[in-house]
## 1
Amino acid sequence: MKKYLVTFALITFIAACGGNAGNEKKGENTSASTGDITENPDYKAGLDLISKSDCLTCHKISEKLVGPPYQDVANKYAGSDTAVAHLAKKIIEGGQGVWGQTPMVGHPALSQADAEQMVKYILLLKTQ
């Protein structure tokens, strides 16, 4: 009888402590639950593209350089359903007037998909 009681207690303990492993959906990104945006695939892909471009000549993450900090852009466009397409178009075509009179040079050689991936990265930098 003691053997059955110990076995039952052990099974109950294992079930109570190891419950999260089976609850995750296949392919689900768990970085949102941990708060670590650097594990987000959009973060990694966007950062890679930005690192290979000339974007960091004018932009920093949290400080104004020539253009606005990425965090300010993310805060301004947070929650907008059209932000990705709108900002990707701005990256490709360039623009002026939203953040001051200094124009942003267009990047017409950049594909729409790559520009959108860069925007997804920027939007993840939201601080508010």
## 2
Amino acid sequence: MNQVIKLTLQKNWKVISLIALAVLLRVFTIHQRGIWYDDAFSILLAKQPIMQILTGTAADTMPPLYYILLHYWMKISTQIAWIRMLNLLIFMAMLGYVYYWVKQLSSGTAGLLAVFFCSISPFLVYHSQEIRMYVMLAFFQVAYLYYFTRWSSSNVKKFTWLEMVICGAGALYSHNLAIFGLVIPGVVLLIQRNYSVLWRWLKIFIASLILFLPWLVFVPGQIQKIQTAFWTPRPGVLEVVQSIYSLFSFLPQPFPWVMITGVLCFQLLGLVGWEFNKQRQQIAQRALIGLGMVFIPLVLFILSYFMRPVYVARGFILSGIVLYCLAGILSARCWPTVFGKIIIGLMILISSISLPFYYSFSSFPRSPFAQACADVNEQVGEQSEGIAVLHDNKLSSFPCVVYEPGLPQMFLGDETGSHNDTLALASQQAMQLFPEVSIQEALKNKSQVYFFVFTRALDEYAELHTDVYPSLAYLDANFQEIDVTYFNDLAVYQYAK
């Protein structure tokens, strides 16, 4: 047994070293980096019993698999660092599939470079620490492409079709946009007019859908929820440019650095596209790689003109990974030339510039909630009678509930029917977190108030109105302002009677 382990380590030490690099980049600040509303939503819902998770998720826009896994993962610990380790483990497993898929398509060197690019990608570092389902979606989709490539080759293993079915169903239970990644092999086979293999693939695809049937009944309602829950604008040139930038770098950054990294990103994309076009005849499964990069963004772009826009970079995380894989293949093939070294150099340079901004980012919507809550908790102490910790909206409330569940916290509801009104009643019931009807009802019989509000909300209101922000106007009229403390762009007002 020891000899087997030794041989395995000797054979795969390069892959293991790159995965170790990926881990180091993701455990850095894994505890200190703050959570935001989406993270907190996942944590608060996953804490509930399984039936409440299912009902709460059915009313939302996502399938339940990630929340269920997170539910059992948090039985060990609810520390933020531990919670994030789930996504880190999923990402490490995904890197293994990236390596073997690219190795199958090209070479072991190409596989190593693809793993390296995925490891240092700010986009994937972000999603590896995000307490959301996007890394799990990517894991199942990459594994699906790997098994499809193996299944469609001459060396078909007996149960590869079953592995495709399981990965397809896993992706569908991870995210409702997963289906667009799963149909890519079918589109490739259709373009190639390989009808015999297409028919066999279609049966595998239908088998995945059959496994998804128990949840499929909820999907129409979730699609309807998207019509109000998504706030993204209809995509144009700016949104396309931002999405390409996001796949390589991290936003926001100071303007000069945005310009520098933006130029580097599009140079890199242009070089990869140019070389891919030159070498397309020599690259195995070139149609699969090409469609893997452009199909999902293109479909989401088109759909966004027929429904509430769903064009967001995280939705086509698979496209970014396939792009890194192509960069790895081309770098390996062109390594003796300057071109291969330029691709590697640009990837390293973009990541080196972007990651420090990523690690240090602590503004809206990821303001320093932990620090603000700890400060208020210290002031409140054991005397919570007559004290209210009131949040202007759910975006600050949910993270603060995670950090300081013992505080007497409340939040004001979103305007009914607005694009911000995204928290479904069933989700509220599942988490037992309900918005207040009004600030008047929330502060009835309260003698002291800590009011959390984002400064950007105050600034946006001031741009359109001449009067005082409504909630602050009510507080000024009924309480006396004692103090206001700023935690970056999060303001905490203290009032008392």
## 3
Amino acid sequence: MSRLTITLSNDMHRAVKEAAARQGRSIASIIEESLKFRGLLPRADASKLVAEARARSTLSEDQATQLAIDETSLHRSS
């Protein structure tokens, strides 16, 4: 297990600490869950996810690339 030091505002630290206490979880598990929710995955997990999606897809590579670009642009603009 790796260690990481981050700097949070006092309000954010208090919010994370309170959420962890309410849920009976560690602060680390709250932060890790948040990172996963934002789409951050270990490379092996991400590669597996992409491989599974490709196996089920009926799109050509060009169509899939364009869809990814369109969805990314839409998400970033909102």
## 4
Amino acid sequence: MTAPAAPALKRTTVRVFRGVDPAAPRFDEYEVPYEDGASVLDALTWIRAHLDSSIAFRYSCVNANACKECMVRVDGKVGYACTERLKDSGVTVEPLKNKRLIRDLVTDIVPPKETLAAAQMRDDGPAKG
């Protein structure tokens, strides 16, 4: 008697924006394991661990105070990579359009009034005491 064959793993394609120039988009395609309920963030972390350690994206699921760091565009719609679901037909992941692109899916998410330059402009100098 032979053991039943293991079911074939389902796979899907994730197209990821790569680079630092939003005016010259480049997409890399990755084939990743697919299962119902998997998130886009699951796919991105799998890609980084198994296929391409150079892919840049941001997330901070262990700290509720930093939630919203994984915000990206999935198939043209803004959402959180941790809650957007993979599709068996594949997905395209891009950085936010209204933020300065740093690299790949990483954008500058610091509010304009909270940047170092803005803080230095408000600073009247060191406290005297």
